[in-house]
Design brief:
This protein is 44% helix and 18% strand. It is of the alpha+beta class. The chain folds into four domains: 154 residues, 2-Layer Sandwich (Nucleotidyltransferase, domain 5); 159 residues, 2-Layer Sandwich (Nucleotidyltransferase, domain 5); 72 residues, Phosphorylase Kinase, domain 1 (2-Layer Sandwich); 107 residues, Transferase(Phosphotransferase) domain 1 (Transferase(Phosphotransferase), domain 1, Orthogonal Bundle), CATH 1.10.510. The strands form six sheets. The protein has a five-stranded mixed β-sheet, sandwiched between helices. It has a five-stranded mixed β-sheet with strand order 8-7-6-11-12, sandwiched between helices. The protein binds threonylcarbamoyladenylate (TXA), adenosine-5'-triphosphate and fe (ii) ion. The site of threonylcarbamoyladenylate has 27 residues, from helix 4, helix 5 and helix 6. It is found in: Cytoplasm. Its cofactor is Fe(2+). It is an enzyme of class 2 (transferase).
Length: 530
């Protein structure tokens, strides 16, 4: 089968021809891609100008791709969203017209799913955790029960857009990512904020701190260096959290920011350190390109997942978890179960499980800058000891803390429960978690990472553990984030996640502050693609 792919969500007017009859191993290698990039004269991407670029450039790149094809086209696949509305509509119109002229099926591809599927297919991995680091997005996903589940994502802007906004502040031309990478080569570390909430994260704090540092006279190469160190360490940390939560040991990278060497180096290092496999596609498949659209398009055609022209409207806010994944089997899953062992490699720490005590060590992470690493390990160890005890005083079962040494990142706890919640999920236990979270919120702090792995279950008690990302706060937004993180972890590990989420919210509504659930709706409904 020969599929013509068309991409035009923002800056890349791109067309590709993918022939899956070629030898499977090099079918994607040999793919023909023709791209004409839109380059704004000043500032960032202007949607209208970008759409004008699409109407000029798409017919040309399509013609070049068709000339390169050595046979008839069997289907036309196009990026249906997410992306800039004016661009998507221009490209959608071109794709429909082509499918009709060629009299072949039309396929509507989700651009973010295409970013991750290209890596999955090239890597040959089974059901990896996927990190998408692109301009307008940043999220960690895994396939489960017919959908790609968002395990964690940015709470504000996409990662590339965040970097590009910083470089606009410096007066540098678009795109800023490669320029920051080049400038960082001569830089030294300077402290900037670092914000991870469970598997979610946000960039707004770090970006304004970076602008302030520059305005206050810090050397631009130092700010670029620290920006890369913190932002990419955040992405690497959440990818590791997703591996740990799901028990998976395969990671693939997608998206334009994935072209950054330092990001790839950190991810590879993290995977090496925990014994996981890592795959990143070549840069031409990381940045926006029609090759990935054609490859996923071919999968979708094989699954008869094509579109009637009258139902092929584009969707600027098309989320990856909205896509019914027709081309993968329901039995595949990102979540892998392993038996409990005496030594557990969590995302952050190595945990040695004794008969009565567990010893948790936050060992240095070689992917992180040593200064950042030391700061995170020390602060989190102190917070974990303090909040574990504070939670108990608020009536929530937690392990007794026997010993703590912040400098070496060591904690010794009482051993509690018989299994992690993800292995013993019941509605009653989810209710317990809701009551526990409401109790600590009532006491003025958050857990910070309440996943189904950070809850231990026994015959008659449900314990919260791992308070290292917790902090004191009276902001309903922070409480809502706790609830959001727990809901996302259910999506990644539970079959009946929706029902359990409802159970959670009903219970929380009964015992906690109603304003928190209102805020949760707001957090979840917020348009994140800016
Ligand atoms: C919806 C769609 O239009 C959007 N596409 C997109 O963002 O283009 P993409 O090619 O995936 O990524 C572009 C971003 O990637 C950044 N980038 C490119 N090279 C980089 C590098 N070496 N280091 C850091 N960032 C880099 C650019 O600064 C820019 O923000 C998306 O996938 O979110
Ligand atoms: N006090 C405890 N009693 C029994 N088991 C524990 C205890 N503390 C930790 N564990 C076990 O070790 C695992 C990892 O611990 P913990 O979550 O504290 O480490 P982590 O590195 O922060 O993990 P992650 O960041 O992936 O959640 C837990 O999921 C649990 O199975
Ligand atoms: Fe993209």
């Amino acid at each position: 089968m020969r599929v013509l792919g068309i991409e035009g969500t923002a800056w890349a007017a791109s067309a590709a021809v993918y022939d899956d009859a070629a030898d499977a191993a090099d079918a994607t290698d040999s793919i023909f891609i023709e791209t004409d990039a839109y380059q704004p004269d000043s500032g960032g991407i202007h949607p209208r100008e970008a759409a004008e670029h699409m109407s000029d450039a798409i017919p040309k790149v399509v013609e070049t791709a068709l000339d390169a094809a050595d046979g008839p086209i069997d289907a036309v696949a196009f990026s249906r969203g997410p992306g800039l509305g004016p661009c998507l509509r221009t490209v959608g119109t071109a794709a429909r017209a082509l499918a009709q002229t060629l009299d072949v099926p039309l396929v509507g591809v989700n651009h973010m799913v295409a970013h991750l599927e290209i890596g999955r297919q090239q890597s040959g991995f089974d059901s990896p955790v996927c990190l998408n680091a692109s301009g307008a997005n940043a999220h960690v996903l895994g396939y489960r029960n017919g959908r790609y589940r968002v395990l964690g994502e940015t709470m504000d802007t996409g990662v590339g857009n965040a970097i590009d906004k910083f470089t606009r502040h410096l007066g540098w031309s678009h795109p800023g990512g490669p320029k920051v990478e080049a400038a960082a080569e001569d830089g030294e570390y300077t402290e900037l904020p670092y914000v991870v909430k469970g598997m979610d994260f946000s960039f707004s704090g770090i970006m304004s701190a970076a602008k302030d540092a520059y305005d206050d006279g810090a050397a631009v190469e130092d700010v670029c260096y620290a920006l890369q160190e913190n932002v990419f360490a955040m992405l690497t940390e959440v990818a590791e959290r997703a591996l740990s939560l799901t028990g998976n040991d395969e990671l693939v990278l997608g998206g334009g920011v994935g072209q950054n060497d330092r990001l790839r180096e950190m991810l590879r290092e993290m995977c090496d350190q925990r014994g996981a496999d890592f795959y990143a596609p070549d840069p031409r498949f990381l940045r926006d390109n029609a090759g990935m659209i054609a490859v996923l398009g071919a999968e979708m055609v094989r699954a008869s997942d094509t579109l009637a022209v009258e139902e092929s409207a584009v969707n600027p806010n098309f989320r990856p978890d909205e896509v019914p994944v027709s081309w993968r089997s329901d039995s595949e899953s990102v979540a892998v179960w392993r038996d409990e062992e005496n030594e557990v490699k969590g995302a952050e720490a190595t945990v040695e499980i004794g008969d009565e005590r567990v010893t948790k060590r936050r060992l240095p992470k070689s992917y992180r800058h040593p200064e950042l690493d030391a700061r995170l390990r020390r602060d989190r160890t102190v917070l974990e000891a303090r909040l574990t005890s504070e939670a108990r005083r608020a009536g929530v079962p937690t392990p007794v803390v026997y010993d703590v040494d912040p400098e070496s990142g060591l904690l010794v706890f009482e051993r509690v429960g018989e299994a992690d919640l993800r292995e013993g999920l019941t509605a009653e236990r989810v209710r317990e978690v809701a009551r526990h979270l409401a109790a600590i919120h009532g006491a003025g702090f958050v857990h910070g990472d309440p996943t189904t792995r950070n809850v231990r279950v026994g015959p008659d008690r449900t314990y919260l553990i791992d308070f290292g990302l917790g902090y004191n706060t009276d902001d309903a937004e922070d409480y809502a984030m706790d609830c959001h993180v727990f809901g996302q972890s259910l999506a990644g590990t539970a079959d009946d996640a929706d029902a359990l989420r409802e159970t959670f919210e009903e219970t929380y509504a009964g015992v906690g502050d109603g304003a928190v659930l209102d805020r949760l709706r707001e957090v979840e409904g917020r348009g994140r693609y800016q």
